[in-house]
């Protein structure tokens, strides 16, 4: 699901995950990777976690992240994007 954030017009994406404790690891990992100490690491390619919503009576939580790419256009636009993607796939931790 995608939406527009009212406060600034940013297009965002909602990722729905079960709200039970057995699935909370995804929210915790995302929150950790987007913490100030990890955010500055150039090897960290984690998408910003903007917010977590808890819709009442849904049994799910919604992770709110920026919409990085339109669903209608999954293709790479340039060779540089492909190279950057491959570099990130094979990045070795030093």
Q: What do you see in this structure?
A:
By secondary structure, the chain is an alpha+beta fold. Helices cover 27% and strands 22% of the residues. The chain is built from three helices and four strands. Strands 1-2-4-3 form a four-stranded antiparallel beta sheet. A hairpin with a 6-residue loop joins strand 3 and strand 4. The longest helix is centred in the last third of the chain and has 11 residues, at 79-89. It is globular, with a radius of gyration of 16 Å. The model has no long low-confidence stretch (mean pLDDT 84).
Give the number of helices: 3
Task: List unreliable stretches of 5+ residues.
Answer: none
Percent in strands: 15-25%
**N- to C-terminal distance:** 37 Å
Structural class, from helix and strand content?
A: alpha+beta
Strand order of the largest sheet: 1-2-4-3
* Inertia-based shape: globular
Tell me the Rg in angstroms. Answer: 16 Å
Strand tally: 4
Largest sheet: 4 strands, antiparallel
């Amino acid at each position: 699901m995608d939406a527009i954030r009212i406060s600034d017009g940013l297009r965002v994406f909602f990722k729905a995950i079960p709200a039970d404790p057995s699935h909370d690891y995804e929210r915790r990992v995302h929150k950790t990777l987007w913490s100030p100490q990890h955010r500055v690491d150039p090897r960290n390619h984690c998408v910003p976690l903007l917010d977590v919503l808890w819709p009442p009576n849904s049994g799910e939580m919604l992770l709110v992240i920026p919409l990085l790419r339109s669903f209608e256009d999954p293709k790479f636009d340039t060779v540089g994007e492909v190279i950057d993607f491959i570099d990130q796939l094979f990045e070795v931790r030093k």
